[in-house]
Amino acid sequence: DQQVKQNSPSLSVQEGRISILNCDYTNSMFDYFLWYKKYPAEGPTFLISISSIKDKNEDGRFTVFLNKSAKHLSLHIVPSQPGDSAVYFCAASWQGGSEKLVFGKGTKLTVNP
Amino acid sequence: DGGITQSPKYLFRKEGQNVTLSCEQNLNHDAMYWYRQDPGQGLRLIYYSQIVNDFQKGDIAEGYSVSREKKESFPLTVTSAQKNPTAFYLCASSIGYRGTNQPQHFGDGTRLSIL
Question: In the β-sheet with A62-67, what is the strand arrangement from edge to edge?
Fold first, then answer.
């Protein structure tokens, strides 16, 4: 049973426009959510996170929104750049879960010049 | 530069052979993790360790073993009991203080293939 779901395997956007990546989760115990960016043959790079006590967190061009009632989070990238082209993974964990992360299957973002 | 070093980057295993993947970190992190990634899949947790000389099974520990004799090192052995070992293996670490949400940071991975 997949506890973290990224239902869009791929997303294509034009340079300068907004990219919105979505993630749904089923486990109501999750209280910490993260987004990672991954290039082929490299390890994931941490992008941004959000605690369940917040509904928004910003870091430069990246903003994560959390809707706890819908068990949904999204990552907004504005403006999108060709260098943002990568696979984005959503992950979640919970206190008492020994900091174990549960990952979604990823969304491949392509930003076209 | 602080970081996580995985070696080798590519590894080939013969049938029936055990192989060990290295993971070293100089971030002074207490917690370390091993994940496996298959094509089109997310990362799945194999083993994790919150402190030296202690480790726990993750979701897919069968056919794998680990040790944590030093804070900096968390090697993973893929044994002959692992029937489908071909995958991309990722090591991660985090500060590890209980009750504190902290991100995990990853190495660049080892790709294991069967000859």
Answer: A4-5, A19-25, A72-77, A62-67, A56-59
Q: Which residue in the set A4, A32, A43 is minimally distant from B108, CB to CB?
A: A43
Q: Are the Cβ atoms of B104 and A99 closer than 8 angstroms?
A: yes
B78 contacts B88 by C-beta, under 8 angstroms: no
Answer whether residue B99 shows pLDDT above 60: no
The overall longest dimension of chain A from CA atoms, in Å, is 44
- With CB atoms and an 8 Å threshold, state whether B40 touches A9: yes
A107 contacts in chain B (CB < 8 Å)? none
Tens of pLDDT, residues B34-59: 999 998 888 999 999 999 999 999 99
Q: Provide, as residue numbers in chain B, all residues whose Cβ is less than 8 Å from the Cβ of A91.
A: 43
Residues of chain A with Cβ-Cβ distance to B33 below 8 Å are 100-101
Quote the distance between the C-alpha of residue A15 and its chain's center.
19
Give tens-digit pLDDT for A36-65: 999 988 999 999 999 999 999 999 999 999
